[in-house]
Amino acid sequence: MIRVFKSGEVARADILYRGESGSTQAVEDAVADILADVKKNGDAAVLRYCEKFDGVKLAGLRVAQADIDAAYEAADPEFIRTLTMAAGNIEAFHKRQIRRNFVINDTPGVVLGQKVTPIERVGLYVPGGTASYPSSVLMNAIPARLAGVSEIIMVTPPAKDGSVAPAILTAARVAGVTAIYKMGGAQAVAALAYGTESVPKVDKIVGPGNIFVAAAKRRVYGIVDIDMIAGPSEILVLADAAANPAYVAADLLSQAEHDRLATAVLVCDSEALAGAVSAELERQIPLLPRADIARASIDNNGKIIIARDMAEGVDIANEIAPEHLEVCVDDPFSLLNSIRNAGSIFLGKNVPEALGDYFAGPNHTLPTLGTARFSSPLSVDDFVKKIQFYLLHERGAGRGAGAHRRFCRARGAFRSRAQRVHPVRGRAVRRSKGEKRMEFIAFIVTVLVGFVAESLLGNWLNWPGVGAVFAAAAAAAFILRALRRKEAPAETQSDAQSPGGCPGGQEK
Question: Among residues 361, 380, 415, which one ends one of the domains?
Fold first, then answer.
């Protein structure tokens, strides 16, 4: 039976307790061995672990396109229509997240900007084993496709007969997955991170999994990027006294039946509601196909917390920072601005978590274990990189040269940077002024040469127009001199030894 607490009569640690969801040393050691084995032995190691953990001996890891097409063709048309509708909702929501490149040219001669570039190859982990999750395929693959990822590689554990659930294959085709591999657990994460003979190395791994998957993702971070370390499923229902206890109980069980380690919490302002929900849980649990899992979750990790009022209830919810937060009150928008920490919020008494999580459009790959205090749901942003760029025209090179130089020197040992800033930026200013002086001098000298040549040589040699010839020769000499100066090396010795200017060097 679920435990019931009054907020003022229980320690904060009991309120925040989520069950034993963290990794153990035994898990970490096992995962480390698996990663090393797959890195060294590739496909052979993965196939060996598939036989050991999944109970199936596979001839190969990749799912044939013919099998994907067959699953799609055999699927119930109503199921395909439902998948397509969900995919449309997910795509419409995530399209709003697409970022654009930008360029800033507010200062003459200076161009700054940011280009958004998709990650080239991404690995999607889709859980399997005790249940099938076609929704996870859509939630992970569609944002990746919208971001422009060129290769979307999906991995999922096989069934005992070596097959992949037809619903998973159908969802993968609808979502636009590039390739599918039959493998799960830490060995699948290792194959994606290191690459094998048949599995391409990816740049990022996303998607939830069990404790072994989470530990493996943590270990390969840095070799590849990851989205987050996902823990067991969580739901917190924030309800007032008028909430329907049968609906609240059903919503709590929608996550409790996922995993024995899942956490289901009710925070309310009514002892009567707390008692009614507890009774409903006892009535509904035996009716569930996964009753044993839901029972373990509710008995071990579930709790009801009775707050003094809704304001305290919101404070408790913020402190717990749940993955899913239902706000079952008559005016949910009155509380929305006060809610700071949650993965996804479901507003009102008519939005069950299952509807919003699977079909409405927002992503259901969410931060768990209290990480909603600083993390966000999976989004298009997870599948792109943002690259800065900087262009400096010669006409703008001198702007702020002194400030650049002082800033570089203020950083201590990076004297070469200050030297790099000085000659390049300073020379641009000096050349600009020098070129103006040279143009004036060239004009005066050309006029004088032409006048003197015409006055002396033209009359003495009786050679009309000789002044124009000498003037042209003088002008040509100035032009050749200017061209030679432009072709000369632009950098001094100190420039050549410097790793780069202050704005663009490697040192940070």
Answer: 361
DSSP H helices in 361-463: 401-410, 415-452, 458-460
Task: With CA atoms as reference, report the closest residue to 52 among 184, 210, 216, 198.
Answer: 184
pLDDT in tens, 47-59: 999 999 999 999 9
Q: Which range marks the domain in which residue 38 is found? A: 25-229
Question: Which of 324, 364, 404, 422 is flagged as catalytic?
Answer: 324
Helix (H) or strand (E) holding 391: strand 384-392
CA 166 – CA 72 distance, rounded (Å): 7
Q: Is the same domain home to 251 and 279? A: yes
Report if residue 370 sits inside a domain.
no
**143 has a pLDDT exceeding 70:** yes
In a domain, 222, yes or no: yes
Q: Is residue 437 part of a domain?
A: yes
3-state SS assignment for residue 225: strand
User: What pLDDT is attached to residue 486?
Assistant: 58
What phi-psi label fits residue 321: left (phi over 0), alpha (psi between -120 and 50 degrees) or beta? left
Residue 377's pLDDT is what? 96
Distance CA 129, CA 156 (A): 9
Owner of token pair 């063709």: 73
Q: Which residue among the candidates 323, 326, 353, 454 is catalytic per the annotation?
A: 323
Count of domains forming the chain:
3
Is position 453 within any domain? yes
Q: What is the pTM of this model?
A: 0.79
**Known catalytic membership, residue 439:** no
pLDDT category of residue 231 using cuts at 50, 70 and 90: confident
Edge-to-edge strands, sheet with 263-268:
3-6, 303-306, 263-268, 234-239, 324-328, 344-347
Q: Which of 175, 203, 229 is the last residue of a domain?
A: 229
Q: Are residues 33 and 113 in the same domain?
A: yes
Q: Are residue 192 and residue 288 in the same domain, yes or no?
A: no
**Is 323 a known active-site residue?**
yes
Residues 137 and 170 both lie in one domain: yes
Using a pLDDT cut of 70, give the percent of the chain over it: 78
Band of residue 393 on the pLDDT scale cut at 50, 70, 90? confident
The residue-averaged pLDDT of 56-75 equals 96
Per-residue model confidence as pLDDT tens digits over 169-218? 999 999 999 999 999 999 999 999 999 999 999 999 999 988 899 999 99
Q: What CATH number corresponds to the domain at position 345? A: 3.40.50.1980
Instruction: For residues 433 and 338, state if they share a domain.
Output: no
pLDDT in tens, 376-388: 999 999 999 999 9
